[in-house]
Amino acid sequence: MNGSSNQSVGLQWKWVLIGVAVGAGIAAASFFIVIPTFHSTPIQALVLLAGFIATGAIVGFASPGVTIKEASIAGGLVAVLVVLLLYITGAALGQDFLRNLLLLALGFGLSWIGAWVGEKLQGSEGPDEEELGLFTDVQAKWVLVGVILGFALNVLAVFIITPIFNVSLDVAFGAFLLSLTVTGFIVAYKSPGVTLKEPAIAGFLAVLLDWSFLEFMLELHVSGGYLAFGLILGFCLNLFGAWLGEKYQMSMEAKQAQPVTTSS
């Protein structure tokens, strides 16, 4: 866990610009890969929304100190660029005023959420921050981090990575499984202590969130059997990824402790 400073500083424009560059790259991938492949406005919007979360998370994690406001501003600026690009090119997603206004608001808000996730993964929260217990000894913060991170990775993996290789159900399913495992690994590795159940619960909830978008936003009906299978996969693969993350965390801690042992 990194011990970044939590002191309030002025606006760091460098990280605003980096965030704009990252967000613009994800938006470009959406424009040149997703839109020509998936002729569905909800899918195009979903990828853009996940991109805002990813933009905030990358800036929040990579930058020193707390840079939530920088990531939020970057997300808002990227949303402006996206709306202008969609409007100029005549894409269906950018021709509705209310939809564009909502996209601008979500660009700012989701980047803020992503930045919060990035800050937690970086470990820049203050020492007085309280851990919220969920049920018994489950840390709600890391469940929430896993849900947000898992949802964004699921969407980006399925709808951006899949078309690059081959648009098929097998490739999409493989990308989905990989994103679940990676989510569990990241959460377990970056969180302090042993956090196996938190990523597992997050995987279950992230798949449930994915299903809600499929069912109500894309209007793609998924049978109860497939939903149950997906929920089990989300739980088990995130748990497996978390186990790998904990093993890697332990190996890194052992390497860091080795010079101290040798010198003593």
Rg of Cα set = 19 Å
Structural class: mainly alpha
Our count of domains comes out at: 2
- Main sheet: strands, sense, barrel: 2 strands, antiparallel
- 3D shape: globular
Q: How many strands in all?
A: 2
Q: How many DSSP H or I helices?
A: 8
Uncertain segments of ≥5 residues (pLDDT<50)? 1-8, 126-130
Mean pLDDT score: 83
Series of H and E elements: HHHHEEHHHH
The residue fraction in helices comes out at over 70%
Distance between the termini: 24 Å
Write a structural description.
This protein folds into 2 domains: 1-124, no CATH class; 133-253, no CATH class. With 264 residues, it is mainly α. A hairpin with a 3-residue loop joins strand 1 and strand 2. A two-stranded antiparallel ribbon has the order 1-2. Helices cover 77% and strands 2% of the residues. The radius of gyration is 19 Å and the shape is globular.
Keywords:
globular; mainly alpha; 264 residues; 2 strands; 8 helices; disordered N terminus; two-stranded antiparallel sheet
Summarize the structure.
The protein is mainly α and 264 residues long. It has helices at 13-37, 41-62, 68-89, 97-122, 140-165, 169-190, 197-217, 224-263; strands spanning 133-134, 138-139.
